[in-house]
Specification:
It is globular, with a radius of gyration of 25 Å. The protein is α+β, with helices and mostly antiparallel strands. It is built from 14 helices and 30 strands. The structure holds guanosine-5',3'-tetraphosphate (G4P).
């Protein structure tokens, strides 16, 4: 590519228009890693299946990278994978795979333009899927639904549509309809054409699935009763108005549905086509004052994730930036809105799992990882030209609290550095009080697995084993100096200072908070969620 020092608005809009930036939301085990791998395989970003999932027994890892993730088979951290399909550029932003990581996931979902909701055909909508769905709804993200594992016995297809409708409020508008019951997946009706797309299994799913296309008449002959049933069911959908409508999908009222068996690469091409044909591309993002930043204006972006220790050779701080407008050029100097200082982007790289390869340009919708970005924090904005500040990302209220100590006192320095770093990354909230002393911070987590992540990272990345002391608190609220004074010496209440300076009151139970509030009706508490990340 010739060097681009700037791009015309027309070019920026054209490149932004090619981008499809999405995340997959699912309950653990629904098949997210398998689907990611299958998507990459279809897009020919990787040549052999097995390069994505980090589970024991499979080959290397693309989207998961912490040793712990591999051991547990869950994805704790987020990376972005970019590949080309048809004339589009697909950015798949990996969401953390565990129910505990809602905060982290929320940040990722703030950086995408659409979500793919992956549902296990035998389980229907599970807890984590519903939680993530709620976040998508709050963000107004259009959702494409994939019913996965259709090669295995599962729930009835119409019953699944009912469940989606009742539990999410979205009208499912299947783009394909399965021929053959779950467990006997013959293929699908492509509703737009009425054709039958039959799948031939490929051994082990190691290559792209071969598909055959038959006209309805040919399919009726080949598939007999299975075909007739599917056609009848498809007719019902049409009668009920469950047909794809682009405007309703983009308005978050309907969800296109595809039937899929990711493990054998069934239905994956259809997902890619749907992303390219129907998923939205970058829209002007609103700044703190509610003013949209035009996609074709000067470069701007915001940090949705920071991470350290991705490369065990040199422990870099990587800030993941979602480009919102304009052309990002490696080496450019942008302004860091939080400090007003220049920020050099010399080390920008695009992240494909562990193997970060350098990226020279990025367009609205893309995600770049900026290495050595220790001054950038989650929620920070970067821009060139006209200043912009995007709204900060909300923090969630922790419900689990532990005091943390170095297991080995001689590792105090490593301990401090590690805690500081994890705090900065937003892995966990860190609070302190004079009574406990600087060496014994209190950690607040939204879910208990976060503590395991901290333990693992402290040991592996910072060389400091830690021990925890469980604290008897369940509720946290923001208070002020007057409130803190009132709570001094109260039983089952403790006030700590969070690293951003906020005073946080911890209560043993919600009941304790209520009882205290009743005694002091003039005292008001802030929700942790109202206090943005900084
Ligand atoms: P996750 O990232 O959402 O947690 O799920 P993952 O892809 O790891 O898939 C969870 C399990 O479901 C895996 O089985 C995987 O092979 C299986 N799976 C995923 N998609 C399909 C599908 O379309 N059909 C069927 N039948 N199975 C599917 P596992 O036993 O945990 O691992 P493995 O031994 O198969 O690798």
């Amino acid at each position: 590519m010739t060097s681009l020092s700037e791009a015309s608005p027309v070019e920026v809009l054209a490149e932004a228009g090619r981008r499809r930036t999405f995340a997959v939301i699912s309950h653990p085990d629904a098949g997210k890693s398998t689907l990611t791998e299958a998507l990459l395989l279809h897009a020919q970003a990787i040549t052999t299946a097995g390069a994505v999932d980090g589970k024991a027994g499979r080959r290397g890892t693309v989207s998961d990278w912490l040793a712990m993730e591999q051991a547990r088979g869950i994805s704790v951290t987020s990376t972005a994978i970019q590949f080309e399909y048809r004339d589009a550029v697909i950015n798949l932003v990996d969401t953390p795979g565990h129910a505990d990581f809602s905060e982290d996931t929320f940040r990722v979902l703030s950086a995408v333009d659409a979500a793919v909701m992956l549902v296990d055909a035998s389980k229907g909508l599970e807890v984590q899927t519903m939680k993530l769905f709620e976040v998508c709804r709050q963000r107004g993200l259009p959702i494409i639904t994939i019913i996965n594992k259709w090669d295995r016995p599962g729930l009835d297809a119409l019953a699944l549509m009912d469940e989606i409708h009742t539990r999410t409020g979205l009208t499912p508008t299947p783009l394909t309809w399965p021929v053959g019951l779950a467990g006997d997946f013959r293929g699908v009706i492509e509703r737009e054409t009425g054709d039958f797309i039959g799948f031939n299994r490929t051994p082990g799913g190691a290559t792209r699935a071969h598909t055959i296309r038959l006209s309805p008449a040919e399919a009726a002959l080949a598939e007999g009763a299975n075909w007739n049933t599917a056609v009848e069911e498809e007719g019902l959908l049409t009668m009920e108005g469950q047909t794809h409508d682009e405007a309703l999908f983009l308005a978050n009222q309907t969800t296109p549905v595809l039937f899929c068996a990711a493990v054998v690469n069934f239905g994956v091409r259809e997902l890619l086509d749907t992303l390219v044909d129907s998923a939205p591309f970058a829209e002007p993002r609103l700044d703190v004052s509610g003013t949209p930043r035009a996609v074709e204006s000067d470069f701007s972006g915001f940090v949705f994730k920071v991470q350290s220790g991705m490369n065990s050779n040199h422990r870099d701080h990587v800030a993941f930036v979602r480009v919102c407008s304009g052309l990002f050029r490696r080496g450019m100097t942008a302004t860091h809105s939080a400090t007003g200082r220049p920020f050099a982007t010399k080390y920008a790289q695009q992240l494909f799992g562990r193997d970060g390869s350098s990226v020279d340009y990025a367009w609205p919708g893309d995600v770049v990882g900026l290495v050595n970005a220790s001054t950038l924090r989650v929620g920070d904005s970067l821009y060139e030209g006209t200043p912009v500040e995007f709204p900060r990302l909300p923090m969630f209220s922790p419900e689990h609290f532990r005091a943390v100590y170095p297991a080995d006192r001689s590792k105090n320095k490593q301990f401090r550095r590690g805690i500081e770093q994890l705090d900065y990354e937003g892995v966990i909230q860190v609070m302190r009080s004079p009574a406990r002393g600087d060496g014994a911070p209190v950690l607040g987590a939204v879910g208990p697995l976060q503590f395991e992540v901290v333990e693992e990272r402290m040991k592996n990345d910072f060389g400091s084993a830690i021990r925890y002391e469980q604290l008897p608190y369940e509720v946290a609220r923001i208070t002020d100096a007057d409130g803190a004074k009132l709570m001094e010496g109260e039983r089952q209440i403790e006030v700590l200072t969070r690293s951003d300076g906020a005073l946080v009151a911890l209560f043993s139970t919600a009941w304790r908070l209520q009882a205290f509030s009743r005694l002091h009706p003039t005292l008001t508490f802030g929700e942790m969620a109202d206090s943005p990340t900084r």
